[in-house]
Amino acid sequence: MTKKVRDGMSSLLKITDLHVSVEDKPILHGVSLEIRQGEIHALMGPNGSGKSTLAYTLVGHPKYEITGGSIEIDGTPLNELDPCERARKGLFLAFQYPVTIPGVKVSDFLRHAVTNVRNPERKDGESLIPMREFRKELKQKMEELGMDTEFARRYLNEGFSGGEKKRMEILQLAMLQPKFAILDETDSGLDSDAVRVVSEGVRKLSGPQMGVLIITHHERLLEYNVPQFTHVMLAGKIVETGDAALAHELHNHGYAQIRERHPAEAAEEQSRQNRPETVGVATAVAK
Amino acid sequence: MSTEAPATPEVGVGDYQYGFHYGTEDYVFRGRKGIDRDIVKQISQIKKEPKWMLDFRLEALDIFFQKPMPKWGGALSELDFQDIFYYVRASDKQETSWESLPDDIRKTYDRLGIPEAEKKYLAGVKAQYESEVVYGSLQEDLSNKGVIFTDTDSALRDHPELFREYFGTVIPSADNKFAALNSAVWSGGSFIYVPKGVQIEFPLQAYFRINSENMGQFERTLIIVDEEASIHYVEGCTAPTYSSESLHSAVVEIIVKRNARCRYTTIQNWSNNVYNLVTKRAMAYGDSLMEWVDGNLGSKLTMKYPAIYLMEPGARGETLSIAFANHGQHQDAGAKMVHCAPHTSSRIISKSISKGGGRASYRGLVKVENNAHHCKSNVVCDALILDSASRSDTYPYIEVDQDNVAIEHEASVSKIAEEQLLYLMSRGMTETEASAMIVTGFIEPLVKELPMEYAVEMNRLIELQMEGSVG
Ligand SMILES: Nc1ncnc2c1ncn2[C@@H]1O[C@H](COP(=O)(O)OP(=O)(O)OP(=O)(O)O)[C@@H](O)[C@H]1O
Ligand SMILES: [Mg+2]
Predict the structure, then answer these.
(1) Whether A84 contacts chain B with CB within 8 A
(2) So what's the ipTM on this one?
(3) Is the same domain home to B76 and B198?
(4) How many domains does chain B have?
(5) Considering only alpha carbons, which residue of chain B is nearest residue A102?
């Protein structure tokens, strides 16, 4: 689909020694990661290890406070940028729990989003991309993802099933074509046909122009999108990095061996789970 | 009695957000400030009204003087009735075509985008400039069907019997202080009669605006929808900003007969100094449907509670309203449903947004008379508060004299959720744009009921309101 980007020209998302707290509670304890455009990375780790926290921090969720370290794209620091500016620099997150925006039509929302991301200098109120062109592109992308074009007229995520929400995230990915995409459990809550559609969709969309960080507990998505790198997170740290085989191993054997190999982090994980407020929040978040 | 020389109104600088402001030199008559019997007599005389109307006005004036200011609602203490002009006429005669409108009036409307509406609903546009309707073209088709669509002054002259039969029957002068004031000094407004069985397919539209300092607008609208007929009437306002207080106090009376339907849509965006104190009421007869769709932006204080009296079995009433209260604004709006007969139903959906220290209040009444068994009423009020300086209140009143009724009331108050903002911003929207989008979505249930151009204008107004936070 796209030409291979020559080495020197591909963008780099560089995360260095990132420390993050939520409401003064430290969650990430020094995460470093480099993702190049065109690469696929898998991020795995047990529940509560901090994967979504990393994702939210990357897109600039105001609740997630960076207490140390940096996020850069091609040397430009993102730490101080708001989510809008980061999106316009080419960052995208497919949310684990996409929110509903009542009364806002999918097509209106996407037309704004696409216009902004394609014209990063755009000011509020400046014109949107032409309607016809946009409609055509949207229709085509929806068909490619096997989505009923009726969804374009619906309100964003309102009354969508879990699987439909995830597909909507992938549609946005397709329309926005970011340099770096983070997929936070985009494959969970889907029936097996939907997993295939989403996995194929991601495969079609990724390529030399996109760096992808796939957060997942399953293997299907990774079978379609074989990662060059697999990272394992435990208690807010990346404790191991390997290739696709590591993902496979974790899938088959779980995290017991990882915990054995990293007793300090395993202990930290244990003590986190015993903090009553953490448990409370975790349940609330999971709902 | 002397008529003063026409004064040249002070024209402010174009500080209105749309940035238009055209000369208003052509006034024929501007009277003087203040209200008394002489002013009322002058108004009636200039309009060459029949004696009964003069008597009606004078009686209403007495009632106005007797009635105390309402103690509830908003702050009215700064409103000085003697510092207001009660009658201004922009042009002596009715214009019949767009081209022959005076230039400055046309320019102002151009900025408001009237031509589009004009093109689309060629016959339906009526534009009120200052106190009288100066432009109106009535589609031949309509008059062939016997529909009367004219300004209220002309209706009094040209259809005296029909006029007298209904005028003041829905809202008597004694209803409230502002209805009395309007009854004394009313001028302009629309008069519509839809004969039995006639269905008007497209919305009839009228634009109103205030364009003179300290000038009150007291238009009076009367709509009669005869049996099995239907109409959708649309009224919209955008007003230039002037520095001193200004008063708008309209009265709208509607009669919806058996099996008829009427929808009355209003979008108002008064400048921040306007007191907008409007009395709107409809009487709905057997198996009819009356709907108020009401959008209120701007103004210093709006007090408006469109009412529907459900007079006979099978009558249905619906009010869909939104209020946007920005810095320095108080929107005290709501609805009133009075079930006077059994098997009647009503629904109120009210949405309010407050921002920048603005205050939005829902004030509503559902009343069920004691013979009105098997009634249903459903009230939903949602308030969105955009910052901690702003305020929202709900005052729902329910008076039920009957056991066999089903009344539901739901109210919610919310803020823009951080997660929603993050979601939209992470797709490249600025915070302002994202908030505007959430607000637009919040009022979508109302906006989708509007004719196209109004929906577009409404969304644009919301965007303008969301820009440049004050306070
Ligand atoms: N907004 C928040 N408020 C409070 N605690 C939070 C918040 N977000 C995350 N946490 C805590 O941070 C830790 C990491 O959570 P995170 O959601 O990043 O885990 P995860 O690796 O994505 O888990 P899962 O696999 O279940 O999605 C958890 O203990 C969680 O309770
Ligand atoms: Mg997660």
Answers:
(1) yes
(2) 0.92
(3) yes
(4) 2
(5) B441
